[in-house]
Design brief:
The chain is of the alpha+beta class and 283 residues long. It contains nine helices and nine strands. The chain is 28% helix and 18% strand.
């Protein structure tokens, strides 16, 4: 009789030719239980409760898509056998479709939902600080696929043109206060002109690399966290009404002043050469 527990229902195994087409899905629930990475914790529990053979078979089916979670569990439990299993998983392509990308996309949506509840309005935000020599403004939903899969929208002039991400370089890697405004910049003040498209009602203000996806070739991906999570402590969320904004940035004696106003020409070309985004005018 088959053992009862989390590893019981692994679904019908794929033929050798079908396994080559197994992949991570964007849809969170478009996979069977055998590819649902939310079940990894239950498989690991079964592994420690005497069902190691069945749990190992289930985890091997998920292959490298489960390797991050297994390695994390191995490190926390200091289990050498689990460490070896994590190494094996990293070298095995998934044999079943998994919801790796769906879970990573969902984690971005979760951060947006939390910010919609807790973040201040942009013009009321206090103590915003840019560190690391650059600062970016982006709606996480505009870079959701990049965060989940791969991509560097901060290096793509076309993405900057449509407003998926706006960023500027700063003269110092030390802390620079950031002040947001909802009115036009002072008359006659030269600014760095950018564009920002807001879809969700939330904007992340922080390091540009918070918009990055995993590097190509990365084997172990965390199903529940992205680079946005990794850099949240160096930035902050603010609420901003959906729309397309003209971003005008300049340096005053005390802060990086950023004016966000409805873009009067949202399809007009703007200068977004990444090499020149550090040229921020001063007051």
């Amino acid at each position: 009789m088959a053992k009862q527990g989390a590893t019981k229902n692994r679904g019908k195994r794929k033929s050798k030719s079908e396994r080559k087409r197994a992949k991570a899905k964007d849809d969170l629930d478009a996979v069977g239980i055998d590819g649902d990475l939310r079940a990894v914790a239950a498989h690991l529990k079964a592994y420690h409760n005497g069902q190691s053979e069945e749990a190992t078979i289930a985890l091997m089916g998920m292959g490298r898509d489960a390797s991050f979670l297994v390695r994390e569990a191995a490190e926390s439990s200091d289990d050498p056998e689990l460490t070896e299993l994590a190494k094996k998983l990293a070298a095995v392509p998934p044999q079943v479709d998994t919801n790796l990308y769906g879970l990573r996309r969902a984690s971005v949506q979760d951060r947006v939902n939390e910010a919609l509840e807790d973040a201040p309005l942009a013009i009321e935000a206090e103590n915003l600080m840019a560190t690391g020599g650059a600062i970016a403004f982006f709606d996480p939903l505009r870079v959701q696929d990049d965060l989940a899969k791969s991509g560097r929208p901060r290096r793509d002039p076309e993405r900057a043109q449509v407003g998926d991400l706006a960023w500027v370089g700063l003269p110092s890697a030390g802390g620079t206060p950031v002040q947001l405004h909802a009115d036009p910049p002072p008359e006659g003040q030269a600014t760095r002109r950018l564009r920002l498209k807001v879809q969700s009602g939330v904007v992340f203000v922080g390091p540009p690399e918070a918009s990055d996806g995993p590097r190509l070739g990365t084997v172990r991906l965390d199903p529940f966290h992205t680079e946005l999570d990794a850099h949240m402590m160096r930035g902050a969320f603010v609420r901003l009404k959906p729309g397309i904004y003209a971003v005008h940035a300049y340096l005053s004696d005390s802060a990086l002043e950023v004016h966000l106003i409805p873009d009067p020409a949202p399809t007009a070309e703007i200068a977004v050469d990444p090499a020149s985004l550090g040229d921020v005018p001063r007051a």
